Amino acid sequence: MERSPNPELACPVAPVVDIVFSRWTTPILWALHEYGRQRFGELERLLPTITPKVLTQRLRQLERDGLVARTYHAEMPPRAEYEITPLGASLGPLFAQLATWADTGLPEVERARQAYDSH
Known about the structure:
This protein has a single domain (7-117), classed as Orthogonal Bundle (Arc Repressor Mutant, subunit A). Helices cover 61% and strands 12% of the residues. It is built from seven helices and three strands; from the N terminus they run αααβααββαα. It is elongated, with a radius of gyration of 18 Å.
């Protein structure tokens, strides 16, 4: 009996897509890359549609993955700051390529959708 192929072997970028492009990960990384070190409340203002619970979950996952570093300051009131790590920053060229593609690719996608939907 032949085994079904491992999707990660069939597409070696699948694990990267799972890490980087899960919901809210890209906007958080983009914000930290563009604006530098941020406190939780600052990130909330930069990403107004994310809930505090989801922002907390995403930041913890990004910290676990080594893409974001959290610095805790034991002062009154206590505060934490988040910044992109060198590993996270190494995704910058990927994001830049995607932004470039978006400029030309998304209008083509929209035209294709309109043509498809008009059938």
